[in-house]
Design brief:
The complex is a heterodimer of chains A (about 1200) and B (about 290).
Chain A: H1 2-15, H2 18-35, H3 53-84, H4 88-91, H5 98-113, H6 115-130, H7 143-172, H8 175-197, H9 202-208, H10 213-220, H11 225-230, H12 237-260, H13 271-284, H14 305-322, H15 325-343, E1 352-353, H16 357-368, H17 370-384, H18 386-389, H19 393-397, H20 403-435, H21 443-471, H22 475-496, H23 520-547, H24 556-565, H25 573-596, H26 602-616, E2 626-637, E3 642-652, E4 659-665, E5 671-675, E6 679-685, E7 690-699, E8 704-712, E9 732-735, E10 741-742, H27 753-758, E11 787-799, E12 803-805, E13 809-816, E14 819-825, E15 835-839, E16 842-848, E17 851-857, H28 865-882, E18 890-896, E19 909-913, E20 920-921, H29 930-941, H30 956-976, H31 981-997, H32 1014-1032, H33 1034-1048, H34 1058-1068, H35 1075-1082, E21 1084-1087, E22 1090-1098, E23 1104-1112, E24 1114-1117, E25 1123-1126, E26 1129-1137, E27 1149-1158, E28 1160-1168, E29 1174-1177, E30 1192-1194, E31 1196-1197
Parallel strand pairs in A: 2-11, 17-18, 18-19, 22-31
Antiparallel strand pairs in A: 1-20, 2-3, 3-8, 4-7, 4-10, 5-8, 6-7, 9-15, 11-14, 12-15, 13-14, 16-17, 21-24, 22-23, 23-28, 24-25, 26-27, 26-29, 29-30
Chain B: E1 3-12, E2 16-26, E3 29-34, H1 41-48, E4 56-61, E5 64-65, H2 70-75, E6 77-80, H3 92-103, H4 109-122, H5 138-150, E7 156-160, H6 168-181, E8 186-191, H7 194-200, E9 203-208, E10 211-216, H8 218-223, E11 229-233, H9 236-241, E12 248-254, E13 257-263, E14 273-274, H10 279-289
Parallel strand pairs in B: 3-8, 3-9, 6-7, 7-8
Antiparallel strand pairs in B: 1-2, 1-4, 4-5, 9-10, 11-13, 11-14, 12-13
The chains are: A alpha+beta (about 1200), B alpha/beta (about 290).
């Protein structure tokens, strides 16, 4: 019995086409993901091989989400085929064995349903063949690395879907509920994933993840490139338990469903329907009387379109809303979004932000958007095929109602479905705000974003789906057409390198809302493109009406004939007008985006980078002048988003050879006019934005020259993607990088190794290698290549309601012709690196150590301004005392719009994005004060970068970013105490360990860190210096730093390099701790410390004797993460924490003690005053540890 | 007003000729379209009901070009398909009102309500008008179908195999209704049951394999076979024992033994008795000739 059904099931599927399509779809998708850069699945994998075991495993775990719907289709068909094809009456009257039948079908379906996942390996195989020669990106293939994830993820996950679908389908015999149950499962999955994102609930998230991705992620999150390339999926206990749990759950569900299953045919529908049937049947026996024919009422001569439309609409609405599916989806979507909101309000270091509306919208959209997409996909099909599915099509088709009635009624129905989900999302957002006591609801922003922009995008998509179903011969092909269209429309234009949005259906320019400028810079572009696509959509709707399958005509040719024969004369007016309007709009937008503005895609941009390198590399060695003094005159016109900057600057020849030719880089999106006395423009390379000037009289060594230039913006019409987002209606923020610069700029090269390989270029070292003796190599610093220390004076004007800020002290302020003018002067020569800002600001002022401290902020973001002001003061005092005097007379924090989300330090001025800090909510006692932390970091830069600047070579950012980070950590320590720092380091450690596994080049030791290796100079650097401060003392470090400032502040060239710091730190370090300098700075050192056991026994005096057993290990890693064990005899910390108070995340540190340990297992004891909760080794996670989470163990009381 | 059909042809994919140059004239009154299953009746009906397009040929109803001016046809058309379903969970009242609206019946909601109620009354579904049509029995659903076909005072009523699923009583009542309606308008009734046509229709046509075999009145058709139909009751062995020289029109069991009817211009012998032709003989004689 079992064998027969099993065999039959397999034959059924292998004879059909569906399973082959499924495998092919997965194979193509993953083949493209492996073989090209266009498709990305499951997040970046960094430098690992394209076919590394880690990638294979990651994809197998990620594919469960994709293959689940395929599995549903297969299992649902197996479970309900006998009912839907009405075979059940025939089949079930035979003497069948129930379990033989069920198991046969289920096992057969399982064999089939796991096959699509194999598409991953198939796709990879073909991608490997296609990239046979690329040995750098492809490693060896091992059978087990494919087989293991297949066994671990594909089979159990398929079983889980299968058992649920089998249970639901055999209980309800309705496909719909199967799909809904899977949707519910995905919501559960999304929630557990959300929880896993928060470190605190890791174990729960691991066990509750039905797909096993969470334990895999947790086990591999710190994997280095070499581990990703070689290791199979670690069979951690969490992984094993998770898999056992979910396999048992699956089998349980199947067993439960099976025991309830009977062969008896169920009466159709619910009890209510059966009752209705009975009463109807009673009426059936009566006869019907004849009545005079004259009583058949006449039809009115002119049928009313509106009443036909209204009737159709109410019929459609009743069909979709009445089926309960929509209500279920609506509830699911709101549920998922609600959970997302409550889990996702995490901006940094576990602290929350205020529920400002734009954040709400981002959160809501993230978790909500899948539902309107599902609604579009599913219900357009339902609506288009409804009359046919219920076999009403001939009756409806024979009515005189025009096709437009049906098309528009479906359109309106869908619109209401979409809007009700979106409005539900808005209501949820407002509710969340209200719940958090935040009452600035900004309904206008909600509606513009959710209804106006997202809603419009969805409408375009919905119309595409209508078209797909209209041209399809049946519903399922319609679904396939639509999904195919969405994928193609999303990928193909980029592939073809057609960057214009005019071809990518339904696309509008991206935008960023800011509380400072609203939607202003983007509004016109978005509206123009929306109008264009709306016109196209009208045409498409008309096409749907024309082409709509009506009556019995289904074939394309029949419908074509139908369409051409049965139109009324007036029917062509609307489409003709729409077509003409759409075409005019296309011309208008084409002219605006491609003629008035230039449209440069990413491919073209890379091409130019390559050309620039080839053409101008040779000039790198030709001496160029250095910029010395600059006087700016800047006019900002916020209303028109325009700006005009002119400058007079002194340039000097600091080399020892005469300069005859000047090579000047200009910024392509601005109009630049340059006047150099005695120079002629020899070449104007517009394509590469490079100008070559020849000086009539060469500029002799030490000679100076005064030149002038003007850089002006030109906002002209509508752009394909809004550029120059530094110029906005409120919150203009640009830096002097837009000014012309001299010489071959290394930063303009294409440096990403993968892209270079793609174009067949040799990899470049991003920056020169670190070398100890560097008088020649240290002639330039890493911020600007064509200047050393410059004096700056600025006259800047803006509109009457705005404040403009330039570097230096405000010398003078006046109003002229309704505009505000400001004159600023730099108090000390500084790096040629500063910003100009203009917005409507409130200003909070204070004075610390003779320095004016100012916070410029948007009126609606006052929450953390005081905190920022205090942090400026605290950092000023600390640094003045510890490192040396601050040389400016003012220190400013200036809020800028969230077009970028960073804070940056310029001399005396620190622009700070509205999206971080300003909206942080630090009301909870446990929150990490990231606002002060970021301010302290930027203030730290006033010494570390703006006084001491590293030479342009590896390790330069050790002197700036790492020391700024150290400064910030010290400020935090003094403010919040030593014991609170560990909660912060947990996040820093996590970031460092994760990021190093994603490195695309080489992980460098801290000493040789490269500019873009933030995880090293911020996270690792901060940890390293803090740890060193713990070991040798803060005062010794600060003594070293003070020495650095004394020798190098505002000095150079030559500029200092990493040795300037490391040598001084080495001097300050006692002999027995000298190993630390090598471990922390010169090598990549990791520890494998963990606590095996922790017990405590109460002592008579109320204290506790704690006994821990720990294991120590120390490793050195190479630049690909290959580790080797090294012997150790290091000073490590042991300690214990008390239980956290309720509502808090961290307990009090009860004890810490430094002990010297070798590698291996040790047992240690100490006494604490209170009842210990956790104890172990390196309790504060200050040392880089491969698995930080096992340093502590819960204490067992004895 | 009469319906003129000229050279109508329709071929389905796979070279299936559903209609092959069919021409006929359908006058006011009941018109029976007779043919075995798969003869092309439904195709013809659907084309006339504007639900399908013909490959070639023409059809006109008065001044209306049926094949092109579909909207005008639909305005005066009542159509009961051979097979139809209904939207789930929708009551008869509401579904019929919806269809009435689509047909443009009634100037406003109140008018429509009257129309719909009276029609439901007429087909005796008033008592169950608030129940979902989905739950109706086959006969009731067919009555609902009749009601919707009668919406809006059609000038052309096309009913495709309407009596399937009706019990004899219902069938009679339905035919009475049709006959009454057929006094003033064109009613096309397709069926494969000869008896139906005989009872109801003033004109008829027989089609087979998409071709028109006969068109005219049933009485004339019967008269054409006068003296040419012969019948004999015989045993099964006898029936199978020889090849008969004349085309067998039908073999029916009468009280358990086969009654064989053959077509012959002269007395065929073998004990066959001349018998008066009926419409069934006409039908089979045309099929056997085809």
């Amino acid at each position: 019995m079992f064998r027969e059904f099993f065999r039959y099931e397999l034959i059924y599927w292998f004879r059909g086409w569906m399973i082959y399509i499924f495998v092919a779809v997965i194979a193509i998708l993953f083949g493209l993901a492996a073989g090209s850069d266009f498709v990305q699945i499951g997040g970046p994998v960094g430098n690992a091989y394209k076919n590394s075991p880690y990638t294979v495993a990651l994809w197998y775990s990620a594919a469960s989400i994709l293959t689940c719907f395929m599995a549903v289709a297969i299992y649902d068909s197996s479970a309900s085929r006998d009912f839907s094809s009405k075979m059940s009456d025939i089949l079930f009257s035979k003497p069948l064995s129930k379990w033989g039948y069920l198991l046969g079908r289920f096992s057969g379906a399982t064999i089939i349903a796991v096959l699509p996942a194999l598409g991953i390996s198939v796709g990879m195989f073909f991608a490997r063949l296609a990239n046979w020669t690329d040995v750098e990106r492809w490693g060896p293939t091992y059978f087990w690395h494919h087989w293991q994830p297949f066994l671990l993820f594909a089979i159990p996950n398929t079983l889980l879907f299968g058992s649920i679908v089998f249970a639901i389908a055999s209980a309800t015999r309705n496909t719909l509920y199967s799909f809904l149950s899977v949707l519910l499962l995905l919501v559960v999955y999304a929630i557990t994933q959300g929880v896993a994102g928060q470190l605190d609930y890791e174990v729960f998230a691991c066990l509750s993840d039905p797909f096993g991705a969470a334990p895999f992620d947790v086990a591999t999150k710190y994997w280095t490139v070499s581990e990703k390339n070689t290791l199979a999926i670690p069979m951690t206990s969490l992984m094993i338990i998770n898999r056992i749990i979910w396999i048992v759950v699956s089998l349980g569900i199947f067993a439960a469903a099976g025991s309830r299953f009977t062969f008896e045919t169920k009466a159709r529908g619910r009890r209510k329907a059966r009752k209705a049937e009975a009463s109807v049947a009673a009426a059936d026996v009566q006869t019907f009387e004849l009545q005079p024919i004259g009583q058949i009422p006449k039809r009115t001569p002119q049928p009313a379109w509106w009443s036909q439309f209204a009737s159709s609409f109410s019929s459609d609405m009743r069909a979709v809303v009445g089926s309960a599916t929509f209500i279920v989806i609506l509830c699911l979507s709101l549920f998922n979004t609600g959970v997302g909101l409550f889990l996702g309000d995490n901006i940094a270091y576990g602290a929350s932000s205020f529920p400002v509306t734009y954040n709400m919208i981002e959160q809501i959209s993230g978790s909500l958007i899948i539902f309107p997409l599902a609604v579009i996909t599913y219900f357009t099909g339902v609506l288009v095929w409804r009359t046919r599915d219920s076999r009403m099509h001939e009756i409806i088709g024979a009515t005189p109602a025009p096709n437009s009635v049906f098309v528009l009624s479906r359109f309106l129905t869908m619109l209401i479905l979409l809007y009700s989900i979106l409005l539900g999302g808005i209501a949820l957002g407002c509710f969340y705000q209200w719940l958090h006591g935040y009452h600035r609801y900004q309904l206008g922003v909600y509606f513009t974003e959710m209804i106006g922009i997202t809603g419009t995008r969805l409408i375009f998509l919905m119309i595409a789906s209508f078209v797909a179903h209209t041209i399809a011969p049946n519903k399922y092909v319609g679904y396939a057409f639509f999904i195919l269209f969405v994928i193609l429309n999303g990928q193909i234009w980029r592939w073809l390198r057609w960057e214009t949005l005019l071809v990518r259906y339904g696309s509008m320019p991206t935008h960023i809302y800011s509380d400072m400028f609203g939607f202003a810079p983007y509004a016109s572009s978005i509206v123009a493109f929306a109008i264009y696509w709306a016109l196209v959509s009208i045409l498409l709707l008309w096409f749907c009406a024309l082409w709509m399958p009506r009556g019995a005509a289904i074939g394309w040719f029949q419908r074509l004939r139908e369409a051409t024969t049965s139109q009324r004369a007036g029917a062509w007016i609307v489409p003709t007008v729409a077509a003409v309007a759409a075409a005019s709009m296309a011309v208008y937008l084409g002219y605006n985006t491609m003629v008035l503005n230039t449209l440069i895609g990413s491919a073209e941009r890379e091409q130019r980078q390559i050309e620039y390198e080839k053409k101008y590399e040779t000039i790198a060695s030709i001496p160029q002048p250095k910029i010395q003094d600059i006087r700016y005159t800047i006019d900002i016109f916020p209303e028109t988003r325009n700006m005009r900057l002119s400058a007079v600057q002194k340039i000097a020849n600091k080399s020892d050879a005469p300069i005859e030719t000047l090579y000047v880089n200009v910024t392509p999106q601005y109009d630049t006019d340059i006047q150099i006395p005695g120079a002629t423009l020899e070449v104007d390379d517009e394509r590469l934005s490079m100008r070559t000037y020849r000086l009539a009289l060469p500029l002799e060594p030490q000679q100076t020259l005064e030149m002038q230039y003007t850089v002006a913006s030109h906002q002209r019409g509508i752009e394909n993607q809004v550029s120059n987002s530094e110029l906005v209606q409120n919150g203009t923020f640009f830096n002097n990088g837009i000014a012309p610069s001299f010489g071959y700029s290394q930063n303009r090269r294409l440096v990403q190794p993968q892209r270079r390989r793609y174009y067949g270029l040799q990899p470049v070292e991003a920056i020169p290698e670190l070398q100890r003796d560097c008088t020649d190599a240290c002639q330039i610093h890493y911020i600007a290549e064509d200047s050393d220390w410059v004096s700056v004076e600025t006259v800047i004007s803006t509109s009457a309601d705005q404040i403009a800020v330039a570097p230096g002290s405000l010398v003078e302020q006046w109003t002229e012709e309704g505009r505000n003018y400001f004159r600023y002067q730099l108090d000390h020569p500084s790096l040629n690196f500063y910003s100009f800002i203009s917005a409507k600001y409130e200003v909070k002022r204070d004075r610390v150590d003779g320095v004016d401290t100012e916070v410029y902020y948007h009126k609606e973001h006052p929450w953390n301004v005081d905190r920022m002001s205090e942090a400026i003061g605290a950092t000023l005092r600390y640094c003045n005392a510890e490192f040396g005097p601050y040389k400016h007379k003012q220190a400013r924090i200036i809020e800028f719009p969230r077009v970028a989300s960073f804070a940056q330090a310029f001399p005396g001025t620190m622009p700070y994005s509205e999206s971080i800090g300003f909206i942080a909510n630090l009301e909870k006692p446990d929150d990490i004060d990231m606002v002060s932390y970021v301010v302290a970091h930027e203030m730290g830069h006033q010494w570390w970068a703006h006084q001491v600047i590293g030479a342009r070579m590896q390790g330069a950012t050790l002197l700036s970013e790492t020391l700024a980070q150290y400064t910030a950590l010290m400020i935090m320590r003094h403010r919040y105490g030593d014991d609170m720092m560990h909660k912060f380091f947990r996040y820093e450690m996590d970031r460092y360990l994760r990021a190093r596994g994603l490195e695309t080049r080489k992980e460098r030791p801290l000493m040789a860190v490269e500019f873009d290796q933030g995880y090293i100079h911020y996270q690792k650097g901060g940890l390293a210096l803090y740890y060193l401060a713990e070991m040798i003392g803060e005062e010794r470090i600060n003594a070293a730093l003070k020495g650095v400032v004394e020798q190098y502040a505002y000095k150079g060239p030559p500029y200092p390099n990493a040795y300037a710091l490391i040598d001084r730190l080495r001097e300050q370090t006692p002999t027995e701790l000298q190993y630390l300098i090598q471990d922390l700075f010169e090598d990549i050192t990791l520890f494998g410390n963990r606590t095996l056991e922790a017990t405590a026994s109460p002592l008579e005096d109320g204290k506790y004797q704690v006994k821990i057993q720990v294991e120590c290990a120390k490793y050195k890693a190479d630049d690909q993460g290959v580790e080797r064990s090294v012997p150790m005899n290091d000073f490590l910390e042991i300690g214990a924490f008390a239980e956290p108070e309720s509502g808090k995340r961290y307990g009090k540190l009860l004890h810490r003690e430094r002990v010297q340990l070798t590698e291996g297992v040790h047992t240690l004891e100490f006494v604490v005053d209170e009842k210990p909760y956790q104890a172990g080794i390196e309790p504060r996670n200050l040392l880089i540890d491969r698995v930080p989470s096992d340093n502590l163990k819960r204490v067992t009381l004895q | 007003m009469q319906l003129e059909i000229r050279n109508l042809s329709k071929t389905y994919p796979g070279d299936v000729r559903a209609l092959d140059g069919v021409s006929m004239t359908i006058p006011k009154g009941m018109f029976g379209l007779l043919g075995p299953n798969g003869a092309g009746k439904s195709t013809l009906m659907r084309i006339l009901a504007t639900l399908q397009t013909a490959d070639s040929g023409s059809a006109s109803l008065g001044e209306i070009d049926v094949l092109r001016d579909k909207t005008r046809v639909r305005e005066i058309l009542g159509y009961l398909p051979q097979e139809f379903g209904v939207y789930p969970r929708v009551s008869a009242m509401s579904l019929l009102t919806h269809l009435a609206t689509l047909k443009g019946v009634g100037a406003n909601g109140r008018d429509r309500k009257l129309v719909v109620e009276s029609l439901l009354e007429r087909v005796n579904l008033s008592d169950v008008r608030h129940k979902a049509v989905y739950t109706y029995s086959g006969g009731m659903r067919q009555r609902f179908g009749i009601a919707q076909a009668l919406l809006g005072d059609p000038k052309l009523l096309i009913v495709d195999e309407p009596t399937a699923g009706l019990d004899p009583g219902e069938r009679n009542r339905f035919y009475n209704l049709l006959a009454e309606v057929g006094e003033t308008i064109i009613v096309i009734l397709s069926t494969h049951i000869v008896q139906d046509v005989k009872e109801l229709c003033t004109h008829m046509a027989i089609i087979h394999h998409g071709r028109l075999l006969f068109s005219g009145s049933p009485a004339v058709a019967e008269r054409g076979l006068d003296g040419k139909v012969w019948a004999k009751s015989m045993s099964k062995q006898e029936l199978l024992s020889r090849t008969w020289p004349h085309p067998i029109l039908s073999t029916k069991l009468v009280a358990g033994s086969p009654m064989v009817r053959i077509y012959s211009d002269v007395d065929p012998g073998f004990g066959f008795q001349n018998t008066s032709p009926d419409l069934e003989d006409v039908f089979f004689s045309h099929l056997s000739k085809a």
